[in-house]
Amino acid sequence: MSGLKRTSLRDFHAAHGARLVDFAGWEMPVQYRSILEEHKAVRRAAGLFDVSHMGEVDVRGPEAGKFLNRLVTNDVTKLYPGRVLYSPMCYPSGGVVDDLLVYQRGPDDYFLCITRVTSTRTSRGFGSRLPASPSRLRIAVPTMASSPCKVPWPLPSCSR
């Protein structure tokens, strides 16, 4: 699988027996042993998901919520700090650009997790939805200096 992009965890995955596949230009693990065995391991302990192939976008400012509501099909006004929303982002004329996660970190402060392979197409889709006063909105695409992993939460053994 030469020519594919690799996350910094790729060698770990290969050394531990992962079956690696081409996932939108990235060499990614799809499975280690059996799906059932992996499911049970995650239920007993925890699982990590390598998200370093995902794109990040910060959206902040007094117009952030309104902008995001024009961007995605789900209702961003239902969010409150600490909550996340899964939604497709559609072209103004219809058809799905990408699916993404919208996290609300605080009032007027959001984080988007997008598929990196579609990040250029996704960010191009922002333009037609910018508010009349774009100075009240800040959109930033942080550089990927690290290789983040996410742990599914809540862990099955944790009590609420």
Explain what you see.
The chain is of the alpha+beta class. It has 2 domains: 5-51, no CATH class; 54-140, Alpha-Beta Plaits, CATH 3.30.70. The protein is 19% helix and 32% strand. It contains 4 helices and 10 strands, in the order βαββαββαβββαββ. It has helices at residues 10-15, 35-44, 64-71, 119-124, and strands spanning 5-6, 19-23, 26-31, 49-50, 54-60, 84-90, 96-106, 109-115, 138-140, 149-150. The strands form 3 sheets. A 5-stranded antiparallel beta sheet has the order 6-7-8-5-9. Strand 2 and strand 3 (26-31) form a beta hairpin. The longest helix has 10 residues, at 35-44. The model is unreliable at 153-160 (pLDDT under 50).
List keywords for this structure.
160 residues, alpha+beta, Alpha-Beta Plaits, 2 domains, five-stranded antiparallel β-sheet, 4 helices, elongated, disordered C terminus
Question: Summarize this, please?
Answer:
The protein has 160 residues and is of the alpha+beta class.
Which class best fits the helix and strand makeup? alpha+beta
Query: What best-fitting shape do the alpha-carbon axes yield?
Result: elongated
- The percentage helix is 10-25%
State the distance separating the first and last CA atoms.
44 Å
The number of domains:
2
Could you state the order of secondary-structure elements as H and E?
Answer: EHEEHEEHEEEHEE
Question: Which strand-content bin applies to the residues?
Answer: 25-35%
- Rg is 18 Å
Calculate the mean pLDDT score and round it: 78
Task: Profile the largest sheet.
Answer: 5 strands, antiparallel
Q: What is the fold-level CATH name, i.e. the topology of the largest domain?
A: Alpha-Beta Plaits
Supply the CATH superfamily name of the largest domain: Aminomethyltransferase beta-barrel domains
CATH class of the largest domain: Alpha Beta
Just name the CATH architecture of the largest domain. 2-Layer Sandwich
Poorly predicted tracts of residues: 153-160
Beta-strand segment tally: 10
